[in-house]
Specification:
- By secondary structure, the chain is of the alpha+beta class.
- Among the domains are: 68 residues; 32 residues; 141 residues, no CATH class.
- Helix content is 42%, strand content 22%.
- It contains 13 helices and 11 strands.
- The strands form 2 sheets. The protein has an 8-stranded antiparallel β-sheet with strand order 3-4-5-6-11-10-9-8. A 3-stranded antiparallel β-sheet has the order 1-2-7, with helices on one face.
- Helix 1 packs across helix 2, helix 5 packs antiparallel against helix 6 and helix 7 packs antiparallel against helix 10.
- It is globular.
- 23% of the residues are buried.
- The N terminus is likely disordered.
Length: 348
């Protein structure tokens, strides 16, 4: 039986790590569905047939393309360039404050001096960055919606004149459109247009939570984070959750390596823009697929400074970012230990 499965896999071309994961899954399936033993003459052909059938079932379930890509990788996420306005550095802020204080000491009108400084210092210089959308694969409606909204945002109010004219005054858009940074009706209308085009729901207002128990209940998940025991040392610092089940949260755990983490869950069918990261050159990341002991299929990645655990779940897309630990960001076994500590199957 083992050789039969191995022969079937030799007709494919997965990596050694992918082959081992696939073999492990098939052997598990075979143990679960093994028929009652009869005589040796009747057992061998049935076993070969079962191996072939299970292999076909797994291939159909995951897709041939998924096998060629190793399920999915960082290259299957949406990467996009965007232009950002550079803010003031700490030194520039201090210099502006000193200049304003000195002008006031000389008897100048502070409001007039501030306008003079703004005319000199604005518009601010810009820079181009590359960001990666972390709420779904690149061909998903969520990723396509994000790309369209980013393209709109880059060209809208480029010098921020509209934003400066509004200042901190309420716009009436905060509750329904605050998650998208909308400060004009035109921006809100664009969000509505994109949601209608891609069949997505708006995110709505977020709710601040302060414990893992609150987060599990509000987001509608099981207990995906470990209990705060002597080994895990798991602590959830804070979380913002939404009515649909999306959330972002920050925490820490020890597990022998004292690690900070940031976890983000984006529901499929919801338009989100907060799940973005700057990954840099993808060639700098080492990535591999990993199946946890309880069957969660994950993508793990490390670049020496940061580590990622990604899960494409049935109802959502989940990203766990790990930092602050040399072991977790450089050693594969340490990142796999963290993947086992969290229960990704508890997140639908």
């Amino acid at each position: 039986m083992k050789q039969t499965i191995q022969n079937a896999y030799d007709t494919l071309s997965p990596t050694e790590e992918q082959r081992e994961v696939m073999l492990r899954q098939l052997r598990l399936r075979l143990r679960e569905t093994a028929p009652e033993k009869d005589d040796e003459r009747g057992k061998r052909p049935a076993s070969r047939l079962m191996a072939a059938s299970l292999l076909a079932a797994v291939l159909l379930a995951l897709g041939v393309t998924a096998y060629a890509l190793g399920w999915f990788g960082l290259e299957n996420l949406k990467e996009q360039e965007y232009t950002v306005i550079k803010g003031f550095t700490q030194e520039e802020i201090l210099a502006r404050n000193r200049e304003l204080e000195e002008a006031v000491a000389r008897g100048e009108d502070p409001a007039e001096k501030l306008r003079e400084m703004d005319e000199r210092d604005f518009p601010r210089p810009t820079e181009t960055r590359r960001i990666t959308f972390m709420a779904g694969l690149q061909d998903s409606p969520e990723a396509q919606a994000f790309q369209e909204y980013m393209a709109f945002s880059v060209g809208y109010d480029p010098d921020r004149e509209i934003l400066r004219s509004i200042g901190n005054e309420p716009t009436g858009l905060e509750e329904e459109y605050g998650a998208y940074g909308c400060y004009t009706r035109e921006m809100a209308d664009k969000v509505d247009e994109i949601c209608a085009k891609y069949g997505l729901e708006k995110l709505g207002p977020g709710r601040t939570l302060t414990s893992a128990r609150q987060l599990f209940a509000y987001a509608g998940t099981g207990d995906f984070a470990p209990k705060n025991d002597h080994y895990s040392g798991q602590r959830l610092y804070s979380a913002i959750a939404y009515a649909d089940g999306s959330f972002i949260a920050d925490g820490a755990l020890s597990a022998g390596m004292m690690t900070q983490y940031h976890i983000c869950r984006c529901m499929k069918g919801t338009f989100t823009t907060f799940a973005v990261m700057e990954l840099g050159e993808l060639e700098s990341w080492t990535e591999w697929n990993y199946t946890t002991e309880n069957g969660a299929e994950l993508l793990l990645a490390q670049n020496g400074r940061r580590a990622l655990i990604l899960a494409d779940r049935p109802e959502s897309f989940v990203v766990l970012e790990v930092h602050g630990s040399y072991r977790a960001t450089n050693r594969k076994d340490s990142l796999e230990t963290i993947a086992e500590i969290f229960d990704f199957t508890a997140i639908p």
